[in-house]
Amino acid sequence: MQKDEKHILTDGWMDEVLKTPPAYTLSNDFAEKVAGKASRRFAWQQYFREFLIYLGSFIGIIAITVAMAFTWLEADWQAWREFLLNNGPLVAGINILGLFVLFADRVLLRYFFFRFSEKTAS
Amino acid sequence: MNDAELVQQVINGNENAFRFLVAKHQRLVLHIVGRIVRRQEDCEDICQEVFMKVFRKIRKFRGDSQLSTWIATIAYNTSLSYIRSRNRKQELFMDEDIQSVAGKSIDRRGQKTLEKEEVKQLLLEMIETLPVHYRTVLTLFHLEEFSYKEVGEITGMPEGTIKSYLSRARKMLKERLEQVSKSEKTNIFTEYAEG
Fold first, then answer.
1. Which segments of chain B does DSSP mark as H helices, in order?
2. Where, by residue number, does the polypeptide cross the bilayer (chain A) (predicted)?
3. A64-107 tens-digit pLDDT
4. Whose CB among A23, A39, B56, B70 lies 3.0–4.6 Å from B15's, allowing a Cys bridge?
5. Residue of B nearest to A26 (CA)
6. Domains in chain B and their CATH numbers?
7. Is the confidence metric ipTM above 0.90 for this complex?
8. Domain extents for chain A?
């Protein structure tokens, strides 16, 4: 009888303890910190996606222009090839510079301004 | 705001909506991560990782289950990956020695009568020493009040296994508590009945 009673009481204890949260804690501004981190990630992803769209558009326009030039304007393919091979470093340099300017304009600067405005706001 | 609206707001990049989502579920995530990882110093980093995963994957949330169940699944998997990465694989399969916790607690107190709060604390310490799957199902089922089906969705375990883990975990804790009560001549059960 006494043993049965003890079992019932132990179950009561057990239920009470199992519903007690463990003693781990998070900082008070946890939600704030995580939301800030997520919003920075979101901004970066959005800016980078836009950069890729711009890059794709430029490459598309150039490709169409070249295709038109060779199809309708009868451009000399050999002369173009020779020009590109002879001036490889120059052509590559201009392309890399253009790519960097586009990246800086569409991603880096915007992201830095975003971070700056975040810091100013806080 | 229901789950679907909240998720849509987060997908649209609404920082306030994500802050709200984190604040709403941080307790759940902390309990799961804490009970699995058992290191206060790592809890915050892992919880942050969980919510960043939630943010990255939120487009994949289809609303088949509740948002809390989906987030709990991510918390569970992230915590398991963490302890696996810390070479604690054996912890998943080996029962730990509850006796050591009980013994430690008794030695520490140095008195024969346990008070209610002390027994409660002792039981909490015992839960922490259960094998990881046991303490996870106990936390999800009792503390977070998920159903068997939801616990199954979170952990990927069949319902029968969950029931068996729950019953075995309770049995282990109960046996240890009764051993402690006998060895310490505690009056705690009488106090509980009176209270």
1. 3-11, 15-37, 40-57, 67-85, 89-93, 98-109, 116-129, 132-138, 148-155, 159-183, 188-194
2. 51-70, 90-109
3. 998 888 888 877 888 888 988 899 999 999 999 999 999 999 99
4. A39
5. B44
6. 3-90 (1.10.1740.10), 95-194 (1.10.10.10)
7. no
8. 34-121
